[in-house]
Amino acid sequence: MTLLDAPLLESAPEGKPVSALHALHAEFLSEQRFNARLAPATLHVYRQAFAALMSVLPTLTPERLTPAAMTEFFRRLELRTRQVGRQERRGVKSSTVAAYRAKLAKFFLWLQARGVITDSPFRGMPYPRVEYEDRKYLGRVAVERIFAALTLGARWRSRLLRTRNLALFAVLLYAGLRRGELLGLHVSDVDLRRLELTVRPETCGGLCPSTRGSCQRSRTIWPSAAGASWAASTSSRTRSAISRSHARA
């Protein structure tokens, strides 16, 4: 098996023949991987969006990529039921529709650039309006209780672990990082001189809204908000020790 053969085999569901769209999407992923150098996590998100499209419209072909087909795709998604824990839910959120559309749009533009289709099936279609009305956040009382529990309620093996864990929660809370982004941080991603954190594409897991391949971004460290624990735990004297204890914990 050659490198060119491998993407074709992994794009189609196991036990099913490779359709024209599967083969084209495999070529698209191969180009994004080796030419655009996209992170594996980003490529995984592209695969997920394409897999959802083909699971809902399994007979889709390049010739049938029309606005009507995309409308039917999203209509079926809205009517489809899914199991979430013990509950059965129906429909999808607008944010999910927007995410699928963003990932599929790049593939469709790639098809258009190669003359496979004459125009993107999303052309002229209104973009979904995404509103996060169910946003959840921690209030001041909840934050104070968590800090109190970390400081007084828990029994840490050492003061270093206690300080490190306080810093981890402070960064998660005040820098606005996702859990995976926090766990993926390296010491080299922390710039105390400029008071910035760097979130790399491989750290964010392809979850950021960017569709351009690199979603590297910076987050400001707020010393007054994060507290003295953050500055103490990331000082040059204790960085290596914290890194070692984080790996063991």
Short description:
With 249 residues, this protein is mainly α.
Count helical runs.
12
Order of helices and strands: HHHHEEHHHHEEHEHHH
Q: β content, as a range?
A: 5-15%
Number of strands: 5
Sequence stretches where pLDDT stays below 50 over 5 or more residues: 1-11, 209-214, 228-239
Structural class: mainly alpha
Helix amount: 40-55%
Describe this structure in words.
By secondary structure, this protein is mainly alpha-helical. The protein has two domains: 5-113; 140-248, no CATH class. 53% of the residues lie in helices and 7% in strands. It contains twelve helices and five strands. It has helices at 5-11, 20-34, 40-56, 67-79, 94-113, 140-153, 159-174, 179-183, 201-204, 223-226, 228-233, 239-248, and strands at 81-84, 87-90, 190-191, 196-199, 217-220. The strands form two sheets. The chain has a three-stranded antiparallel sheet with strand order 3-4-5. A hairpin with a 4-residue loop joins β3 (190-191) and β4 (196-199). α1 packs across α2 (20-34), α2 packs antiparallel against α3 and α3 packs across α5. Residues 1-11, 209-214 and 228-239 have low confidence and may be disordered.
